[in-house]
Amino acid sequence: MKRLSHLLALAALALAPAAAFAQAMPIQKPAPPDAAHRFDPPWNAPFQAGEAFTVPGIDNVPDLYGDVVDPQLVVFFGGNQFMVLDDLLREFRKAYPQYQRIFVETLPPGILARQIAQGGALVVGNLRIALKPDVYAAGKSRMDMTPEWFARTSSYAQNRLAILVRQGNPKKVQSLRGLGRPEVRVSMPNPEWEGIGKRIEESYEKAGGAALKTAVMTTKVQAGSTFLTQIHHRQSPMRVLYDQSDAAPVWYTEAFYQKMLGHPVENIEIPAKENITANYVAGVMKAAPHAQAAQDFVAFLTSPAGQAVYRKYGFLPPAN
């Protein structure tokens, strides 16, 4: 599958001057040049400042967001929250106007953790970015693996699973058990580095025991009808939209967002007895280069303004 090149290939990244970026506002993204890329990210709106040079399928970096030049705040977000960024950062800047130059990565939390462990450097194509995060945000189980990294942590949202299918649901998938059918092509997050993968496996066992988990994760992987993603929050929707997969277990908010975009998909809800709940936690890094900005951002996530953004995109309130 070559779709990953749509996501992480890079030849150029426009860098806006600080003063210009401070005044920049998101604008509507231009229509892609041809039908082959009509659903390609970035799905967030680009910024006005700087020369716009996003070429679908060639130069496209949807999970690196904002200003890499002398940022006043650096946030490493688990990738499934990419959809909130336009609204969240706009509201954060209103509340804290002293922070205008912000850089955010929305990669899988396991990849972000490896990046932090290696000193903060990330290499994408020919680009190397070496920025240490002020804030790291991921699922609680991932955060609990490295408590020594954080000065403090705070729960700020929750999520649950759903199944994403194409409009009309051609394979008539109605439940997790349907993903075990041999003819249903499944796009599945790789549990090796995507935390959602392990949570979906928990739901497979709830819905159909070890037999369902084995069918989807072993038998169908070997047969080629389960595709294991490297960055599911981009690959899974695209595989469904481009008819490369029939169904994809995803976070509910990811399916919700694709519907918000008007993409031709449907959301199959998973009953509570077969579902799981993810608790999202943000941590202020002990080694944060911008410690006060980190404290302010984590506080903002649980503020009324921050919570309103998360509700808009289908997230549940934080755990008590």
Please explain how this structure is put together:
The structure is a single chain. It contains 10 helices and 12 strands. With 320 residues, it is of the alpha/beta class. Strands 1, 2, 3, 6, 7, 10, 11 and 12 form an 8-stranded mixed beta sheet that branches. Helix 3 (85-95) packs antiparallel against helix 10 (304-312). The protein is globular.
What can be said about this structure in brief?
The protein is α/β, with parallel strands linked by helices and 320 residues long. It has ten helices and twelve strands.
What order do the helices and strands come in, and which of them pair?
Blueprint: H1 4-8, H2 18-23, E1 64-66, E2 73-77, H3 85-95, E3 102-105, H4 109-117, E4 121-124, E5 127-130, E6 135-139, H5 140-143, E7 150-166, E8 186-189, H6 195-223, E9 226-229, H7 232-241, E10 247-251, H8 252-260, E11 265-269, E12 277-285, H9 291-301, H10 304-312
Parallel strand pairs: 2-3, 2-6, 8-9
Antiparallel strand pairs: 1-3, 4-5, 6-12, 7-10, 7-11, 7-12
